[in-house]
Design goal:
CATH superfamily: Outer membrane efflux proteins (OEP)
Distance between the termini: 78 Å
CATH topology: Outer membrane efflux proteins (OEP)
CATH architecture: Up-down Bundle
Structural class: alpha+beta
Helix content: 55-70%
Strand content: 5-15%
Order of helices and strands: EHHHHHEEHHEHHEEHHE
Shape: elongated
Strand order of the largest sheet: 1-6-5-3-2
Radius of gyration: 37 Å
Number of strands: 7
Number of domains: 1
CATH class: Mainly Alpha
Length: about 500
């Protein structure tokens, strides 16, 4: 501790400390310049008073499916959405996808966990920028207080405060803010994943519902065929085998219905699980028709949008900047920290010596430890930068592959609706007319109907597959494809 009294010893101490600080400055510069940290994508710091910035999106670019409110508002919204959810869809005649997505985002425990992690990261900032608590100092010589003592009462009382080198607290605060930024973007990534999972479950529910309807329609058609076969058998125009074949087809349709009813229960349980409800609770029926778009955005625009809108990419960029700031903080450790104190010391006999101020300062002589800390921080930045580059490659691949799958599904749906199904329906109509005219045997009629049933199911599977592929591509892009309405379109 240095006591600030004008003396030659004090001047000497100041000179020694100045020389040490100069050496620290030169060493820290060498450590910082030894291996430059790689450049990372820039992410705005999380404002303490404002909504969190994601660093890549303006308010006009933000997807309606990615909420950007503060974690306090999200916690309040999610807490209001808790409950059993038994009457969640009461009075609704149809399960609407946007409503389902909203409820999943508000009720799913994964979202609450992500928001809680965001809130915890957000509260790190005031902790790391705060000064340490001041220290109260005191000492007493009990013997000097005795009435029989021949010396004056001896004690001192003081207070000390540690002050880090200028810039260290702000760097720690920046690291905390970047980490809070990453946590907020992680919550948006969880939201995107929940949206994708809910959409996939919804389309599975739609598919099994449509297959059940097709099963009922096809069973009515086969029963009609059986009545025709029965009439022709009674008129001795055909053998009993036609009726038996119709019974076999009806039994196969009943078996298929049992399988579909089982799949329906699984699809309902999956949606209810995402909604944090009991798995057996009923849901409204899905819509009758799912729209299949006839055009797709340009894949190059999608890849570029993915790099701008994927919250996991921006979160990784924020973590890179946190590590880059940690490099600067490690360089700051070459500078000493201070502890200033003031006290009143009754041990001194001279009154003018009793009021004192002083300073403690650590001497950063262990240079190898600090050099290693800087190198460690730089290696961490390099590691995270490489992970970011790998993640970018993966995103580009996901978008390209997702676009190819979506384009293939779109062509398949168009093929079924414009060519395959109309031809199959005409084939059944011709076979039925031929059977009534005793020009076609019953097996050919049954085969035509069986083929139509299979093609109708495949058509619905193609529609659901298109919607699933679209959901996967939107998750890969990080935003709904509708935001490209004003961009170039690919026919």
């Amino acid at each position: 501790m240095f006591l600030f009294r004008p003396s030659r010893a004090f001047a000497t101490a100041v000179a020694i400390n100045a020389a040490l600080l100069a050496g620290c400055v030169s060493v820290s510069k060498q450590a910082a310049l030894r291996e430059p940290a790689p450049q990372a994508p820039r992410v705005e710091l999380l404002a303490r008073e404002a909504k969190p910035a994601n660093g890549r999106r303006s308010s006009d670019d933000i997807s309606s499916e990615i909420q950007t409110v503060s974690h306090e508002e999200l916690v309040d919204t999610l807490s209001r959405s808790s409950g059993s959810g038994d009457d969640l869809f009461s009075g609704q005649m149809e399960l609407v996808l946007p409503v389902l997505l909203t409820e999943v985002r508000q009720r799913n425990p994964s979202m609450r966990a992500a928001v809680a992690a965001w809130g915890a990261a957000f509260e790190r900032y005031p902790q790391v920028v705060a000064l340490e608590d001041p220290v109260l100092q005191s000492m007493l010589a009990p013997g000097s207080l005795s009435p029989s003592s021949s010396v004056q009462s001896s004690y001192f009382v003081g207070i000390a405060q540690k002050i880090p080198w200028a810039g260290k607290r702000s760097l720690r605060g920046q690291i905390a803010q970047f980490e809070a930024n990453a946590a907020s973007l992680d919550s948006q990534d969880v939201q995107l994943r929940l949206t994708e999972a809910a959409r996939l479950a919804f389309f599975e529910y739609y598919l099994v519902y449509r297959d059940l309807e097709l099963n009922l329609v096809n069973r009515e058609a086969v029963e009609k065929f059986r009545e025709t076969a029965k009439a022709k058998f009674e008129a001795t125009q055909v053998t009993q085998q036609d009726m038996l074949q119709a019974d076999v087809e009806l039994a196969m349709l009943k078996s298929r219905r049992i399988e579909l009813e089982q799949n329906e229960k699984i699809a309902v349980a999956r949606i209810n699980t995402l909604l944090h409800r009991e798995p057996q609770l009923l849901l409204p029926p899905p819509p009758q028709i799912l729209e299949v778009s006839g055009e797709l955005p340009d894949v190059d625009a999608l890849r570029q949008m993915a790099l701008q809108h994927r919250p996991d990419l921006t979160a990784q960029a924020a973590r890179i900047q946190a590590e880059q700031t940690a490099v600067a903080l490690a360089c700051k450790e070459f500078y000493p920290d201070f502890e200033f104190m003031g006290r009143y010391d009754q041990f001194w006999t001279d009154v003018v010596q009793r009021a004192q101020v002083g300073m403690y300062v650590n001497i950063p002589l262990n240079q190898s430890r600090r050099h290693a800390a800087v190198r460690e921080a730089i290696f961490k930045v390099n590691k995270m930068q490489a992970e970011y580059d790998s993640q970018v490659d993966s995103v580009r691949n996901d978008v390209q592959a997702g676009f190819a799958r979506l384009e293939g599904s779109r062509k398949t749906v168009r093929l079924y609706s414009e060519s395959v199904l109309p031809t199959a329906e005409q084939n059944v109509a011709a076979a039925y007319a031929g059977y009534e005219a005793t020009k076609v045997d019953f097996l050919r009629l049954v085969e035509a109907e069986r083929q139509l049933i299979q093609l109708q199911e495949k058509h619905q599977e193609a529609v659901a597959e298109y919607q699933r592929r679209r959901a996967e591509l939107e998750r890969a892009v990080g935003t709904p494809l509708e935001v490209l309405d004003n961009a170039d379109r690919r026919p």
